Each structure stands twice: as C-alpha cells, then as structure tokens.
Amino acid sequence: MDELKTASMSATEALLLDLMGDGERFGLELVATSDGRIKRGSVYVTLTRMEAKGFVESRQEERPAGAIGLPRRLYKATPYGATVRQAYQSLRQAISLRPAEAR
Amino acid sequence: MARAPRPPTVRGRWMAAASRRLFSAESFSLLVEPAIADLQIENSGRIAERFDAYRTVWVGMAAACDDGVARRARAFVRDNELVTLAALVLLHAAHSLWMVVLLLGLDGRVHLKRLISAGLSELPTPGVLAVASVVALYAGRALVMRLLATRAPSPGCSVVRVLE
C-alpha cells in the first residue's frame, strides 16, 4: 500500500505564504512587510526550502537589456502551498482550546 | 587625452564570481544570486543595513555549500561509490599488511623486524595509511573532475558575466 507523506509547514513558512498572498513578491519585500518577524538573513534559505517542498514557485525578474547588477527573484505561492496553508490553519483552529476549555 | 569611462562599480561582484564557480547553478540561482542582487540595489547609507545585506549573502553561500555537500553525499551513496570506497580501503589495507608480513619474513638476513618496528612506532597503522590514501585519491579525483567539468552558462547572467 502506498504510504502518504504529510506535508510539514513551519510558522515562518506559513507567514511567508500569508505575506505573498496571490501576487509575486521579492524576498526583500517580504522581509519589509513582515514587521521584523522574518529575518533578512534567512529569507532565501526558507524560500528555497519552500520551493523544494512545492509551496512556492519562483522566477527571475525581467530586466531591460544592459541593466547593471544581478537579477532579483520573484516568489509566488503555488495552489498546493495555499492548500497546505489552509489545512494547517484549520487544523490549528480545530485542536486549539481556550484555557477555560482545556481544564 | 580623454580616459575611457570606467564601468560602474557593482557590489558583490567577486562574491558572485566565486559562488558561480563553487556552487551548482541551482544553488547559486536560488540561494546566493537573490541575496547579492539585494545587496546591489541596497542604497541605504546605514552601516547596519549594509552589514545585514552582506550577512544575507554569507548565509546564502553557507546554505549553498551545505546543499552541495548533501547533494554530493546522496549521489555518492546512490551511485554505489560507498561500496567501491570500502572495497578499495579493504584492498589497500590488506595489501599494506601483506607487504609488512613479507618484509618481516626477511628478518633473519636484513634485520627488518627491528627497522619496521621502529618505523611503525612512529608511523600510523597500515589501516590508517590505507584510509588516508584512498580518501586522498577520491579527493584528488573529485578536484580534477570539478576543474575539468564544463560549466553551462547561466541564462540570467548580467554584469558579472560581462565584466569577466
């Protein structure tokens, strides 16, 4: 029997997906809009891991001919990433209890 | 006489050039290139922000290095090279031990036992020598393959490629 693998999503990954929304964002843009919750030093490592998991897809920005410097990378949430994000959110809501209910 | 105009200075050029040679194209484009691109568009005069931008590049390079090592280790195991390495180590160790045994057999005529025991007390054991030599062989082979490997040009190259 084929064993199903459960996708794992960390809080940072979920936050990055939230910040991306439906559009394409640069890594630095995501850091700037996270109010310090995402560190600049680790954003590309996290985004690369997310891409390996299939949560996001990326492409190089289009630049005019003769542009100076390296091209930046644009990141976009995949439908799979959005589905896993939604599932994790529902799961957290379903299993979380208020202190009064937990007694 | 008018001087030729100098190309504009772009930060992180040497880091990009070194990373292209050190890491795989995928690791470079996903982990290092975006960080260097951010560094290049950084126009803040604040030292803290500049430092942060450089730190991001170094983190990306460390992650790319880690990615490369993990990739090579997986390929090493997948291609059955681990078995080949173990067989080579065993073969080498057996050969070294056999040579020592043969030399010890000549002891009556040339007093090799004394010479070898004096030498062995200072040298590592044949097993260690065998492992070290096989590892050195593999490292040399990897280095030569790395140097001989033809690199596919990156489609997203820009100023780094132009200046090279």
Explained architecture:
The complex is a heterodimer of chains A (103) and B (164). Chain A is mostly helical and 103 residues long. Chain A contains five helices and three strands. Chain A is elongated and about 60 Å long. Chain B is mainly α and 164 residues long. Chain B has helices at 13-22, 25-41, 47-78, 81-105, 107-110, 112-122, 126-148, 159-163. The longest helix of chain B is centred in the middle third of the chain and has 32 residues, at 47-78. Chain B is elongated. Mean pLDDT of chain B is 74; it is low at 152-164.
Q: Greatest interface and its residue counts?
A: A-B, 22 and 26 residues
Report the portion of residues of chain B in β strands. Answer: under 5%
How many distinct beta strands of chain A?
Answer: 3
Task: Report the radius of gyration of chain A as a whole number of Å.
Answer: 17 Å
Unreliable segments of 5+ consecutive residues of chain A? none
Major sheet characteristics of chain B: none
| End-to-end distance of chain A | 40 Å
Q: How many helices of chain A in DSSP terms?
A: 5
Spell out the helices and strands of chain A N to C.
HEHHEEHH
What is the residue-mean pLDDT of chain B, rounded to a whole number? 74
Question: What share of residues of chain A is helical?
Answer: 40-55%
The computed structural class of chain B is: mainly alpha
* % residues in beta strands of chain A: 5-15%
- Runs of chain B with pLDDT <50, length 5+? 152-164
Largest beta-sheet details of chain A: 3 strands, antiparallel
Cα distance spanning the termini of chain B: 27 Å
DSSP helix fraction of chain B: over 70%
Tell me the number of helical segments of chain B per DSSP (H or I, 4 or more residues long): 8
